[in-house]
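Email to the structure team, subject: DUF1707 and DUF2154 domain-containing protein model.

Hi all, the expression group asked for a predicted structure before they design truncation constructs. Nothing fancy, just the tokens so they can compare against earlier work. One-line instruction: predict DUF1707 and DUF2154 domain-containing protein, return tokens.
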Amino acid sequence: MRASDAERERIAELLREAVAEGRLDMDEFDQRLEAAYKARTHGELEPLVQDLPAPGTAVAPVGSSAPAPLRGSAANWPARIGGTATSKGGFALWGGFNRKGRWTVARKFTAFAMWGGGEIDLREANFEDREIVIRCITIMGGIHVTAPPELNVEVRGIGIMGGFGEGSSEDGEIAADSPRVRITGFALMGGVGVDRKRTKAERRRLKEAKEAELEARRRRGLEGPDGDGGSGGDRKKL
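Reply from the structure team: attached below.
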């Protein structure tokens, strides 16, 4: 069956997410993206993504109107839920603590900072359960929480002569199968902030993917719809 422009764009989106996850290197991405924009049939599109399923989800068929599965920092949420917690809390007194990288957040995690600070990074974390409560208590100190845009995060805290709330946020759609993280507590003459942003590595891969896509579009425009360098009109005249 002939492929539509919408189907080509959906395959291009799957390829962008794959390179953002590190599943494809830039050379592979560039080659597959160019092939996607040149594809005329489903048979040409399907091989470009058949080895790129999102773990725990199924890739929608090329001819389906269903949206592509969420990937990026939201990839494989089911596999990131469960297991033994590696940390149940953090404590800082005249100092600091941090939890980041690959770690497993306890079902109930308590963070305390007095005359100090703490950092809780959830972007690459696993979760002991689907429902997570993070209690942040700070007295004349600060706690900073960083979450990926696709994680379901609810912030409910109290600031007394201080602040407790959400800060900067990058664009992203909350994944239906992500854990639900509730951040509660209070800040007394201090602050608790929650930012939503991707890792530097993921932002860099997404930027490179976008640049490669623009280059592929530019080359396709120079070649013309028939892939002949734009000479289709000349042949018709002859």
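The longest helix spans residues 200-223. DSSP finds five helices and eleven strands in the chain. Ping us if the truncation boundaries need rechecking.
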